[in-house]
Design brief:
By secondary structure, this protein is mainly beta. 6% of the residues lie in helices and 41% in strands. The strands form six sheets. A twelve-stranded mixed sheet has the order 7-8-9-10-11-1-2-3-4-5-6-12, sandwiched between helices. A six-stranded antiparallel sheet has the order 14-15-22-17-20-29, with helices on one face. A four-stranded antiparallel sheet has the order 13-23-16-21, with helices on one face.
C-alpha cells in the first residue's frame, strides 16, 4: 500500500505532477528505534525507522514503510543541503500533500559534559525544553551521518536516544548499513501547500465530519417554511434534518459541535440538540407534523396535561444529545461597548456523545435543534458530528430514552414542565425484556423561572427513585456563570455591579452546555420498572412560574 510514494521520497523524487529528482545517497544507515514508558516496553509497537545518508535523512515508521498502516500517515525527509524538513502526508488513497518546515534551523540546545555508550558508540548529551517538556538527547558523531527519531536534534549528530520528562524513552536498537532498494516507481501526484494548511489537512483527515446544519437560522416567523433537506417546525424555532450515519466500530468516539450567534435575539435561551427515535408506533416527528396535542398525554393529578414527555409502550420521547444555552446576544449586540470588554464573536459548544453511539450506528436518523425564541432574526447555528477512531473498545449498548420534559414545541403550544408542583412529579413506567449489565441513567436537569424567587435562581434538590428506591439526591447548581461574561454583550447590568449573566443558576449558565449526571444502576434484571423524578418546584407569583426541563436516557451493556 503506497510503497511507490515512499520510494519517491527515498529516491529524492519531489513530485509536482510527474516531476522526478533522483536520490543519490547509497548506501545509507538504517536505524531502528523502540520506545518505552516508565521502563516498560509495549508489545507490538510500531518501530521508528530512520534512513540516514550524507545529503538526506528519511523519518518514517515500520508500518508506514511496509504499507501496513492506516490513513492518514506522514513521513518526512531532512534535506541537509537546504537545512529544512520536507513533509509528506498521505490523507487517503487519493490525496497526498507536501510542505516544508525550516524550524530545525532555530533549534537550541544546552550541550552537557555527560557521555555514555549506546550500541557501542560514544554518545554526548544535549538538553532542551519544548512546550514545558524537558527533552534529553544522546547523540554520537562517530558515524558519518546525522539523524534522529524525530525532527528534534537532527543537526546534532546521530541521535541514538531521546528521553522526554525522564520517563518516555525512544532508543536505537539496531544500526545497519545497507543499500537502499529501488522498486519500480509509480507516480502519485502531490499537492504543495503552506505549512499551516498542511497541518490542518492532517488534523481534519484523522476524523470523519458529518455536517448537520450550516449557518442555519432558528427564528420565530409566521412565514417559516421547510426548504431543501431542512424541515422547520413551530414557526421556525425547530429545525430537523435526516442524517445518514456510517458504521461505527467499537473504538469510535463521537463529538457533537455547535456554534451559535445571535441573529437578532438579545436574550439567553434554552437550546437542545435531539434525536427522534422512530422505532415505536408513534414518534415525536408525528407530533411535529400533526401538533403537540397528538402526542401521548402525561398527567399526575395537578390538573394539567403534558404532551410527549414520557415513554410508553408505543412512544419514545426525543433523545437529548446536548442541552445548551445561548448567551445574551453574542455578535449581534457586540456594538454595546463596555470598557475592558472584548466580546466574543460566537459561542462554541462541544460535547462527547459516545454514550449514544448505538442509537446512531449505521442508521438514517432525524436530528433536530431547538432554540426557544420569539424573535424574527433569532439565532444562527452551525452544527457537526465528528467521529474519531482509535479510542478504547466499548461494548455494544442498549439505549432507552425514558423522559424528556423540555417543551421543544414551546412555540407550537407544548406546555412547560410544571408537573413538579405535585408530589408525584414525573413518573415513568417501562419494561426491560432481558437483563442489562452496567446500566446507568444519563440525567440532564435545568431549573427555570427567571425572577428573584423563580427556580432558575433558587437551589432545589432533585430526587430520582427507581422502584421506590432513591438512586439520585442532589441540588444541581452552577456557580461559574461569571466566567462567560465575554459571550454576553447584551446581559443586563445591575446597580450591584453584577450582570445578569454572572448570576448562579439551577445547573446552567448563559453560553454553556449543561452536562448530564451519570447515575450508576448496576445490573437490572428483566421486568417492570417505575422511575420517579421529584423536585420541590416553587409556586407561581403573578404571571411568573417555574418549570424544570429534565431528560433521562437508560444506557447499558
Amino acid at each position: 500500500m503506497n510503497i511507490f510514494l515512499l520510494v519517491a521520497v527515498l529516491t529524492g523524487t519531489h513530485m509536482r505532477g510527474n516531476a522526478q529528482v533522483t536520490f543519490t545517497d547509497n548506501p545509507v544507515y538504517k536505524i531502528t528505534y523502540g520506545s518505552s514508558f516508565n521502563g516498560k516496553t509495549p508489545e507490538r509497537q510500531n518501530k521508528v525507522w530512520v534512513f540516514a545518508g550524507p545529503r538526506q535523512t528519511l523519518l518514517t515508521t515500520e508500518k508506514d514503510f511496509s504499507g501496513t498502516t492506516s490513513y492518514p500517515f506522514e513521513l518526512s525527509v531532512i534535506d541537509r543541503m537546504a537545512n529544512r524538513q520536507e513533509l509528506y502526508a498521505f490523507l487517503n488513497d487519493r490525496e497526498t500533500i507536501t510542505s516544508s518546515d525550516t524550524a530545525l534551523r532555530t533549534q537550541r540546545f544546552e550541550l552537557l559534559e555527560e557521555t555514555k555508550e549506546i550500541l557501542g558508540y560514544r554518545c554526548k548529551k544535549a538538553k532542551t525544553v519544548v512546550n514545558s517538556n524537558t527533552i534529553e538527547l544522546w547523540y554520537t558523531d562517530q558515524l558519518p551521518v546525522k539523524g534522529a527519531p524525530s525532527v528534534l536534534g537532527q543537526n546534532l549528530g546521530l541521535v541514538l536516544e531521546q528521553v522526554r520528562n525522564g520517563n518516555n524513552v525512544v532508543r536505537a536498537e539496531k544500526i545497519e548499513k545497507q543499500q537502499m532498494s529501488r522498486p519500480a516507481f509509480m507516480t502519485r501526484p502531490t499537492l504543495q501547500t503552506d505549512l499551516l494548511s498542511y497541518r490542518d489537512a492532517i488534523w481534519n483527515s484523522r476524523f470523519t465530519t458529518i455536517p448537520l446544519f450550516t449557518n442555519q437560522v432558528i427564528n420565530f416567523s409566521d412565514t417559516s417554511r421547510s426548504a431543501g433537506d431542512v424541515l422547520r417546525f413551530a414557526n421556525g424555532t425547530i429545525v430537523v434534518k435526516k442524517i445518514k450515519i456510517p458504521v461505527l466500530d467499537s473504538s469510535s468516539t463521537l463529538f457533537l459541535d455547535l456554534r451559535e450567534q445571535s441573529n437578532g435575539d438579545a436574550y439567553d435561551r434554552t437550546g437542545t440538540v435531539f434525536l427522534i427515535p422512530t422505532d415505536t408506533k408513534q414518534s415525536f416527528l408525528d407530533g411535529l407534523k400533526n401538533g403537540a396535542k397528538t402526542l401521548p398525554a402525561y398527567t399526575n393529578g395537578n390538573g394539567k396535561t403534558y404532551q410527549g414527555v414520557a415513554a410508553t409502550p408505543d412512544y419514545t420521547p426525543p433523545l437529548e444529545l446536548m442541552r445548551f444555552f445561548t448567551p445574551f446576544g453574542v455578535k449581534q449586540f457586540n456594538h454595546i461597548q463596555l470598557k475592558g470588554k472584548q466580546w466574543q464573536e460566537a459561542v462554541p459548544y462541544r460535547q462527547d456523545i459516545t454514550d449514544f453511539a448505538a442509537a446512531l450506528n449505521n442508521r438514517e436518523v432525524y436530528i433536530g435543534v431547538f432554540i426557544g425564541n420569539y424573535d424574527k432574526g433569532g439565532h444562527k447555528i452551525t452544527a457537526n458530528l465528528t467521529i474519531h477512531r482509535g479510542g478504547p473498545d466499548k461494548p455494544k449498548q442498549t439505549i432507552l430514552p425514558l423522559f424528556n420534559t423540555l417543551n421543544i414545541m414551546e412555540m407550537a403550544g407544548q406546555d412547560y414542565a410544571t408537573m413538579f408542583d405535585n408530589e408525584n412529579g414525573l413518573t415513568v413506567h417501562f419494561r426491560i425484556d432481558h437483563p442489562l449489565d452496567n446500566a446507568y441513567l444519563l440525567y440532564t436537569t435545568t431549573g427555570h423561572g427567571g425572577w428573584g424567587n423563580g427556580d432558575e435562581f433558587v437551589p432545589k434538590k432533585n430526587t430520582i427513585l427507581l422502584n421506590q428506591k432513591v438512586i439520585f439526591d442532589l441540588v444541581p447548581w452552577r456557580q461559574d456563570c461569571g466566567s462567560y461574561r465575554l459571550y454576553n454583550p447584551a446581559s443586563g447590568n445591575f446597580n450591584s455591579g453584577l450582570s445578569s449573566s454572572d448570576l448562579s443558576r439551577s445547573n446552567w449558565c448563559p453560553g454553556t452546555v449543561t452536562n448530564p449526571f451519570r447515575i450508576s444502576l448496576g445490573r437490572l434484571e428483566a421486568g417492570a420498572y417505575t422511575l420517579q423524578v421529584k423536585i420541590p418546584q416553587g409556586k407561581p407569583e403573578g404571571s411568573s412560574f417555574s418549570a424544570w426541563n429534565v431528560s433521562g436516557v437508560l444506557v447499558a451493556d
